[in-house]
Design a protein that fits this description.
Layout (H helix, E strand, L loop, with lengths): L7 E4 L3 H12 L2 E8 L2 E8 L2 E7 L21 E4 L3 H10 L3 E8 L5 E7 L3 E7 L3
Parallel strand pairs: 1-4, 5-8
Antiparallel strand pairs: 2-3, 3-4, 6-7, 7-8
Length: 129
């Protein structure tokens, strides 16, 4: 039996705006949009691969707000880049909330953290050459 990652599902107060964030900042593509109960569901791909599904609050759900505070369970998810300074400038130009500006870890990797819509914490990492 084998597994592959199918998607991450983000519940959003504004699924159109959340999907746009990943399109504008990562070059993701909205591969599909469809109605989902009383909301919409967007399926996003990055470089031709499944990235995530973003949907709003469906009828009968009572979603709780997200948080960028460290927590048990899913704390953040990460993206790797080959140019963290360009990524930093891209996020600044789109008005994204930078949680932590780029810094170098003892391993030589450079990391930064960005807040995506709905208080989703994203790590951006550039590994040393």
């Amino acid at each position: 039996m084998g597994f592959v990652c199918n998607h991450l599902h983000l519940r959003s107060e504004d699924p159109d705006n959340a999907a746009k964030f990943y399109v504008d900042n990562f070059g993701a593509v909205i591969a599909q949009s469809r109605p989902l109960s009383t909301t919409v569901s967007h399926t996003l791909e990055l470089n031709g691969q499944p990235l995530l599904t973003v949907s709003g609050e469906a009828e009968g759900e009572n979603a709780v707000p997200g948080s960028t505070e460290p927590r048990f369970g899913l704390d953040h998810f990460g993206f790797e880049t080959d140019d963290i300074q360009a990524a930093f400038q891209q996020f600044q130009s789109t008005g994204a909330n930078i949680i932590c500006e780029p810094w170098t870890m003892p391993s030589g990797s450079q990391v930064m953290f960005v807040e995506a819509p709905d208080k989703v914490s994203l790590e951006i990492i550039q590994r040393p050459a």
